[in-house]
Structure formats: structure tokens, C-alpha cells
Amino acid sequence: MSDRPNVLVIMTDQQRATASHLYGNSFCQTPSMQRLANDGVLFENAITPHPLCVPARISFWTSQFPHAHGGRRNQTLMPDGIDHAWQLWKNAGYTTGLIGKNHCFHSEEDRALFDVWNPFTHGGREEGGGTRGMDWFRPVEGRRKVAQQHRDLAHQNPRFSYGTSDLPLEDHSTGLIAGQTTRFLEKHRDDPFALWVSFPDPHEPWLCPEKYAALFPPDKIDLPPWRDGEFDADAPERNRVLYQMLGVRNDPLDDVYGVMAAYFGMVRFVDDALGQILDKLVELGLRENTIVVFCSDHGDFMGEHAMQCKGGVFYDSLTRVPLLVSWPGQVAAGIRDSSMANLIDVVPTLLALQGIEAPRSMQGESLPTVTDTAPRDATFSEYGSGGPLFTMADLAKLPQPWGRKTLIDTLQWREAAGRCKMVRTRDWKYVHESMGDRDELYDLVNDPHELQNVVDRPENREILAHLRLRLADWSIDTEDSPPVPLPDQAQYELA
Prior knowledge:
Layout: E1 6-13, H1 31-38, E2 40-47, H2 53-62, H3 66-69, H4 85-91, E3 95-100, H5 108-111, E4 116-121, E5 125-126, H6 140-151, E6 162-165, H7 173-187, E7 193-202, E8 206-209, H8 210-213, H9 237-246, H10 253-283, E9 290-296, H11 316-319, E10 320-321, E11 323-326, E12 335-342, H12 346-354, E13 379-383, H13 392-396, H14 404-409, H15 411-416, E14 420-424, E15 428-433, E16 440-443, H16 461-477
Parallel strand pairs: 1-7, 1-9, 2-12, 3-4, 3-7, 6-8
Antiparallel strand pairs: 2-10, 2-11, 4-5, 9-11, 13-14, 14-15, 15-16
Helix pairs in contact: 1-10, 7-10
């Protein structure tokens, strides 16, 4: 066993915090997440810096907000020459690996930092670039059968599709990645390692093994509350546009229950995969020397606000994610931390626990409870890169029925639209859209499902002014990237 702690970051894709009973879900139990929480710290209010895959992942590994690193769209991958965690771990002598979804690193220089490179993405497909360091433990024929089932997935309506599979669990991405991870641990049990285990689930396409979907029949699923008129003319235009494409109110309730069963079944599949990995750490005697992080890059509506999937808005179903950090015997165990946290805080936390100095470019702070850093009362998220807004008038030019095809056809326009920014505290959320028609303010104590925008209420003027100031301060504090070079140390030694 190495005297340096290993790092194991387990990331899911599009798993909102409230997909687990640990965050208040009434019907989806996640016992392996519970096991990890019992051995570590659960952060109740962890927020993604951007509710979209690539910007969130770049932010995670660079510990910078998207407006600082510039990767604000799914088409702008990890910028060249930027500091990130994998350079530090490679330089520190760690064996490094990625198993699962990448959607972040693209340069040959960055990919070369990984000793093991096993990229695998949605639809049962390898992500490209081949493997390095380990071959897949399952034959390609099984993966191809799963990929074919994804391609054959029937659309129940123009907005979404879902289905079940009876193919071997180990040929689905979650089972494949979990099995490959256990083999990595066996191979590198005597090496200090840093490993990114990146599950594509429960992101769409929603093809779920039958045994997991069967855990969630309609009578077991509790639908979230919906508000009549939530997306009428007085709602922000960005939100109204998204609802026209993703809304499920007019779909048969059986299909709504069906797609939710597939999504939550995939969450349970991932949870079992997490348990498989934790079991292997214990079996190999690695658990006490391995820092384990479990998180997701962003969330999914999956019924909240009568929508499914995601888009450029800031409801908690998209921005609030699970975050658990565990290192038995070294950090607190069985603690729920209610302060505000952000995914950009994870890498500085890991570096602090490992005794590795974080670069000045990193904007995150070590997490409280896990370290001795003071708790924060606010955190932030953003979306867009300054492009023109996609409006209801633009939507009206496209053929109906609006749905999944409309979502994809307008994706790059909407991902780049505007410069939307959010500040969230435990009790309040404020969203500012500099190019939009209407800001948002939600009272999270009295309206935890964010069904009523109270930005115009006179009694909220004071809190609105306070949150606008916090947002402005954050924008100024994080504007320099890379940091402006400082004078040589000698220039500060005046005595």
C-alpha cells in the first residue's frame, strides 16, 4: 500500500440530487450512496458551475468557472495550456486513468496524461481514440448488441423515448465501467493512483435493464408538484421556450411514468455499480488509503416543472447535484454539511488532503467539514457565451410538433445564448439574464420546488438587492484568467 492517498472520482451524468433518498426522494433508495455517506460527508447543497456536460467537466478539473476558462459550450472542450488536476497527479507520480465518459479532454497532450484510457459514452458506444493501458474485459459483440438496442429505441412521442433491455448487465455502460474499474484496482493496487470513473447514465438515451426499470412501477413513483400556468406569458422567455420542447403535460401519464422508471432504474443500476467498486476497494485493502468522491456533472428535470431532460435554466433539478466525499479515518464520517458547495471545490479539496499545492488559477476552495476551511453561504452557476437569445418568435418558425428534434436543431444556438448567471444560498436563488426579459427569484424555504417567481414582490426588494450585489462581487472576483502575473518575490522584500 502506498503512503500517498489514492483518488477515486466517481461521476455520473445528469443525475440530479433529488434522484436519491439521501436528498429527499420518496421512492428511489440508493443504498451504496448511503454506505458512502455513512463513511464520509454528504454535501446537501452542492451546485454545478454550469448545467451542461462539457463546461461542468472542464470546471470540475480546472477548478474554474466557465467564464474564466472559456469552455462555455459542449463544442468547446478543455482549452490548451490550462492548469488542471491531471497534470498535477501525473507530475506527483500517480498512475492515472479514465474509465467511462470523457467529453472534456481532447488534445493529445492532455490525453497522454492518462496511463489508462478507456473512453465510453452514451448509446453503448466507445467515445473514440481507442483504449490505452487496459483492454475492455468484455468482448465487443456484447457492446454492439447494446448499441443496436439504443439505435432501435422507439419514440413514444416527439419529446422523448425510453425502453428496457434484457441483455447482460456487464455489456451496458454502467456494468461495463464498473467491471473495468474493479480490474483497474486489481492491476494497480500497489501503485498510488488517481482514477476518474465516469458513468454516462442516467443521461438519455433512456434504455434501462429490465430488472432495474421494474423497481419503479407507476404506483411506486411520486410525481413532483406542477403549477398550472407556470410557463404562461409572464415566465422568462428562455424558460417558456424550453417548456415548449420538453414539456410532458399533454403526454399520456403512462409514458411519463415509463420514462421516469427508466431514469430512476438507471440511477439504481449506477448505485449498485458504486457498491461493486466499494466492495473491491475493501477486498483489496485499499479503502482506508483511497479518497472517494461521488458526484454528478449536472441534473435532469425528469418530471420536475412538467419537463424531462435539461436546458439552459437554473432550477435545482438541473443545478443541484449529489456530492459525497469519504476517506475513512481521515475525514469526518456520517456528517451532512448544509453549507453551500460547488463542484469546482472538489479538486482543491483533494489536493489539500494529498498535500499537493493548488495552482493560483484555481478559483474553488477546499470543502468545509472535509477540511478546516470555513463554510460558505452562497455559490454560483452560469450558462451561455454571449450569443443572441433564442426566442418564442424563433421557435415559431420551426415545424410542429416541437420536441426532441427541435431541441437538437436549436441546441448550439441555445447553448451559446446570453450570459445567464445564478447565485444560490440555502434560502434563496436569484437568476440574472442580461439579455433576457425577466430575472428570477425563488424563496426556497416556502417554495422548495421553485414554482413561483417572486422577483417582482415589493417585500423581496432587500434580499434581491443583496443577491444582486453578491452576484456582481463574484463576477468581479473571478474575472481574471489566467491570473495576472505577480512581481518577483524580491519586489516584496523591502526591508
